[in-house]
Amino acid sequence: MTVDVHPCIEDLRAIDLLRDLSTEDLEWLCQHMELLESKAGEIVNQAGTPAEHMIAIFSGELRGERDTGQIFVAHAGSITGLLPFSRLTHFPTAVRATKDTRAGRLHKEHFPEMLRHIPVLQERLVNLMADRIREATRADQQREKLMALGQLSAGLAHELNNPASAGSRAANYLCKAVKDFRHANVKLSKLELPFEARKFLIQLESDLADRAALLTLDSFERSEREEALAAWLEKQGVENAWNLAPDLVDAGCTQETLEQIADRIPKPSLPMAFARLTASVNITRLVDEIENSMKRITELVRAVKDYSYMDQMPEQEIDIHAGIDTTLIMLKHRLKNGVEVVREYDRAIPRMVVRGSELNQVWTNLITNAIDAMNGKGKLRIVTKSFDGKVWVKIVDNGSGIPPEIKDRIFEPFFTTKGVNEGTGLGLDIAARVVKNHGGHIHVESQPGQTVFAVSLPLKVKPVVGQPQALPVDSHEEATVIEPRP
Fold first, then answer.
1. Mean of the per-residue pLDDT values for the chain?
2. Burial letters 118-143, b for 16+ CB under 10 A, else e
3. Is the pLDDT score of 419 beyond 70?
4. In whole angstroms, how far apart are CA 122 and each of 104, 119, 125, 148?
5. How far apart (Å, rounded) are the C-alpha atoms in residues 237 and 271?
6. Which of 54, 57, 103, 100 is nearest to 77 (CA)?
């Protein structure tokens, strides 16, 4: 990078904010500015360098970079760097020239004289600084949303993987069970199994399929039953007795069941009868497993659609409880390792007209904060009630609480107690602004063992048509639904 003495007036007229200044004003700037010339790829400022200059870019391009990627790009014709009245003390990013660049820089010691000599620049530069703050805030908010989306996506992918893997595994076993069933049928046909015996076997398969769904055995009981059945089968001369025994136990068979089969099925046909019996029950069980896996996947896909309110207008008439329950489904990967969820819902609350996807972002941020406060283990209470024309939603956790000295700062943008790359400090700020835009408020009360974030929203409703459908509670989730407390 080379530094010449001064830029020229033609350089300054390339800057949008300076183009209409008088020749006298431009000459003053030329006399007090230094000309910078940088080659493409050259570092103009290192991260942490003291911010002492306002920079006007005549040609080329400067880009601010962090380890996480691009932060901002300053093009030819723009002004960047330190501005009058700015609190910037150090450059937060490394600044690199992405093209051959010519720019002029003005040291901050000349700012007071510049504003006295060219007073019109005061309003222009203050407006520029305000625009820059808005853009930076918008970028950080977008980053916060992307981080939240990334966490939800990772959790959703994990939740989808479990039923998808189970369904795929069951489908593979189902193919084998169908082949075994067909093979047994062919063998039984060659052995000319009597009609009454076939009828008995078909009825037994149906009964065992129903019974197997209710079978619950601990490992010790299962082992004992498998040994008993294998020993019985060996006495009857059945081949592969120890391979058949586990499947027969899964089918709900006892030694008494096997004795009934032996009484009704001719002995030469017993091995194939047992093979068909186990294959038939396995087919029913595996089909049920695939069906349950597909239901779980469908539920998760529906939860994503409900969470984002896809294909709907910005404002919707919604059941606020359905939105909270959908959020809990989206966050299930954070809840299932030790968080007990207790719902205390006032089901008399009517459907409300709100921006549903925005409110779901509020529930996500508040519930995520509660989980973090409990270190992933504890009791999470969600309470809803309505009175005086308002709906209240309380998110209550039994974590360590918020220290009194920071309680007044938790809604400040960028304030966070989390480590680097663990949070941006915008979650509660976004939640507060969304609630405020709905005409509501967020209140917080905290002490060790109980922190309450209470969201109040005006009860804006439309006439209800039909009865709203509540979102079903996931059968795998520890949740209790009780009447709201007074």
1. 80
2. beebeeebeebbeebeeeeeeebbee
3. no
4. 19, 6, 5, 39
5. 9
6. 57
- Structure-block tokens of residue 321: 């409880």
How much is the pTM?
0.46
Ramachandran sector of residue 464 (left: φ over 0; alpha: ψ -120 to 50; beta: rest):
beta
Task: Please report the pLDDT score of residue 191 as a whole number.
Answer: 83
Cβ burial, residue 22 (10 Å; 0-12/13-18/19+): exposed
Please report the beta strands in 374-462, taking only residues with DSSP state E, as ranges in sequence order. 378-387, 390-397, 441-447, 450-458
**161-165-171-172 Cα dihedral, nearest 10 degrees:** 150
Quick check: 84 and 110 in contact, CB under 8 A?
no
Cβ atoms of 121 and 56 closer than 8 Å: no
Beta bridge partners of 34: 105
Q: What percent of the chain has pLDDT over 70?
A: 80
**b/e map of 41-66 (b: 16 or more CB within 10 Å)?**
eeebbeeeeebbbbbbbbebbbbbbe
HSE at residue 106, side-chain half, CA atoms within 13 A, is 23
| Residue 38, both tokens | 């940088």
**Tokens encoding 138:** 């918008």
Residue 485 DSSP code: P
Q: Which of 3-7, 86-90, 184-188 has the highest mean pLDDT?
A: 184-188
Please state whether beta strands 339-344 and 378-387 pair in parallel, antiparallel, or not at all (unpaired).
parallel
- Tell me if 367 sits within 8 A of 328, measured CB to CB: yes
Helix, strand, or coil (residue 382): strand
CA-CA distance, 45 to 421, in Å (whole number)? 24
Tokens of 158: 């994990």
Rg (CA), the chain: 35
Q: Which two tokens stand for residue 323?
A: 């939105």
What pLDDT does residue 484 have?
35
**What is the C-alpha separation between 455 and 41, in angstroms, rounded?**
50
Among residues 402, 382, 389, the alpha carbon closest in space to that of 451 is found at 402
In sequence order, the β-bridge partners of residue 104 are 35, 56
The neighbour count for residue 316, using CB atoms within 10 Å, is: 16
